[in-house]
Amino acid sequence: MTQTIVVLGGSYAGLQVAHRLVKNTRKTVKDLKVILVSKNSHFYWNLASVRAIIPGIVKDEEFSQPIEKGFAKYPSEAFEFIVGSAEASDLVAKTVTVSTAGGDRVLSYDHLVLATGTRTAGDDVVPWKASGTHEEIMDQIHKTAERVKTAKHIVVAGAGATGVEVAGEIRYEYKDKEVLLLSGDAHILGGDVTAGSAETELKKLGVTVQTGARVDRAVVLPDGKTEVTLQNGQTILTDLYLPTMGMAPNTEYLPSSVLKADKFVAIDEFYRVKDAANVWAAGDIVWTPRGGFVIADKQAAGVAKNIDLALHGKGPTPVKLLPMDVFVCAVGRGRGVGRMGSVKLFSYLVYMAKGKTLGMQMMPGILNGTNY
């Protein structure tokens, strides 16, 4: 009897789990079928979004390519790709309802992998996450790039890694634009040990950094400008407002019994979803210990391994992440800050590891499964 694995989410974690199971597990489990469900028909390398909003720097195909192309080598009996979004789930009956252009489909599974990630919190339309269809994401990128090109004054709200990278990319390219980075905390990057170095690099680029500046609201005025009001009452008038703060998990299709208070998925050390049989999770949807490409990569590898073990009648093994916390943040296209554990990295190393290409050279291998 066919063993069906349904993988929800076509980003970093979902693609890796699907490829590993079809390529490797199917060698010994011949009746295995993997169904990958993605709201987006294309794999979106969102790490590059901070540079994609700068006109003329990167081409669309460098950060977005069709998912189906990456799985075309697999036989239809082993793999199926569905463009759609998960709308409901019955974890007792082991079914997931998926909304597609042709109507709803109810998928039955033997194992289910949750990898639907996160989206930008709130109603702001920004391209930092794959929050829509391919067409919607590319439209966001192109419209934002056009607005970056014409704006004289830009406010970047939120001074986490994304905010720092956005501000740095804009000011690196445009020395004549005023770029203001707002941090709601007393320090950028949440007070990370690299915060001081990052602020120094930003100021070298000409970015103005304002700390203790938490946004209360932003209102678009009739003339197209945006009035940003801070919680301290200060108002800032800008040509372009780019919020980068806050992430919300894409878990609305799941029962509350498997979610934590913050709506992220509750898992054990094996990345099994708690209170659910044969359900696993990886990537930003678990936010453990936090979100990130390298973390998602390790989580996905561990989940694929544990599903393989389960299909062979063996118990799972704890999912191992990196032995130390690693953080890297590009600051413009020539510099960066980072650390391994508490040890700071030289700016040039961060530039080579991330800032030079934002990892776009790895996209084909992840999309096609040649990295696994």
TrEMBL record:
A GO molecular-function descriptor: flavin adenine dinucleotide binding
SUPFAM superfamilies reported for this sequence: FAD/NAD(P)-binding domain
Residue ranges occupied by any FAD/NAD(P)-binding domain in the UniProt entry: 4-286
Keyword check for Flavoprotein: yes
Keyword tRNA processing: no
InterPro entries: FAD/NAD-bd_sf, FAD/NAD-binding_dom
Positions of transmembrane segments: none
Keyword terms of this UniProt record: FAD, Flavoprotein, Oxidoreductase
Protein name as annotated: FAD/NAD(P)-binding domain-containing protein
Annotated source species: Neoarthrinium moseri
Taxonomic lineage from the root: Eukaryota, Fungi, Dikarya, Ascomycota, Pezizomycotina
